[in-house]
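2024-03-11 09:14:02 INFO worker-7 job=invfold-0412 stage=load source=structure_tokens
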């Protein structure tokens, strides 16, 4: 049974994907569980398709998902999420911007959340420009994560089940996940400033999309399911164990670890 599904979306990325494939296999092997790699091809040329098909003969854990027409980054992500078979989804850009060595750190943080978003460190000028560009989103939805454009994150499969992303909506993914009652957190990841990136269109959401997400967050009321027991569950010292409820939309991210009440 597959544990980890790595989704790599891109267009015309066969060369850079093949160059880093060995590195990716090495990192995934260190996780100690079955995995698969899904390269989601956003309708590339015949040469790129042939190069990706040739990789399939040498890698049994590799799958190539090809879209019938160009759909952009959000369409590629939606197709990869729908095709993934693993319990944990790992999404990473096909280029050389990010370091695969950060994958175990992101996966380990799933003990605290259902979606762990990567966050890139920037200088003061970039932070200021990013804060200005994200001001309408922060005003309406709150500052759930600092770098929603970072294409390096991991999530539990159930948090993204049957999720279809419209063009530009991947930047609202953390808020869409919290509306489902799941927890979101962020973790700093290393990145290269001037690395090669995949040729994939990434549409900006229009103001109507922002208002739609805001309206949905106002109406979202996740259901909390509690398991009833005949006797309270206790630890080895006889103290009652309590599990925190799911994160509310727009709420503060807290640890979902089991707490011990005295």
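2024-03-11 09:14:09 INFO worker-7 stage=emit residues=262
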């Amino acid at each position: 049974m597959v544990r980890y599904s790595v989704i790599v979306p891109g267009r015309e990325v066969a060369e850079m994907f093949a160059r880093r494939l060995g590195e990716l296999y090495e990192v995934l092997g260190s996780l100690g569980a079955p995995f698969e790699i899904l390269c989601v091809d956003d309708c590339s040329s015949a040469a790129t398709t042939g190069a990706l098909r040739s990789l399939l003969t040498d890698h049994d854990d590799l799958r190539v998902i090809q879209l019938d027409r160009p759909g952009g980054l959000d369409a590629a992500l939606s197709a990869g999420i729908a095709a993934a078979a693993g319990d944990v989804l790992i999404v990473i850009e096909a280029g050389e911007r990010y370091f695969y060595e950060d994958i175990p750190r992101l996966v380990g943080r799933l003990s605290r959340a259902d979606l762990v978003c990567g966050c890139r460190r920037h200088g003061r000028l970039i932070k200021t420009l990013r804060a200005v560009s994200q001001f309408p989103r922060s005003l309406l939805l709150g500052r759930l994560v600092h770098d929603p454009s970072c294409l390096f994150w991991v999530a539990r499969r159930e948090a993204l089940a049957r999720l279809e992303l419209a063009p530009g909506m991947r930047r609202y993914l953390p808020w869409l996940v919290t509306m489902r009652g799941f927890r979101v957190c962020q973790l700093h990841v290393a990145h290269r400033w001037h690395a090669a990136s995949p040729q994939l269109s990434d549409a900006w959401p229009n103001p109507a999309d922002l208002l739609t997400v805001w309206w949905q967050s106002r109406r979202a009321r996740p259901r909390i399911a509690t398991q009833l027991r005949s006797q309270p569950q206790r630890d080895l010292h006889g103290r009652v164990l309590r599990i925190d409820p799911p994160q509310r939309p727009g709420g503060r991210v807290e640890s979902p670890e089991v707490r011990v009440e005295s």
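2024-03-11 09:14:09 INFO worker-7 stage=report msg="The chain is about 35% helix and 20% strand."
2024-03-11 09:14:10 INFO worker-7 job finished
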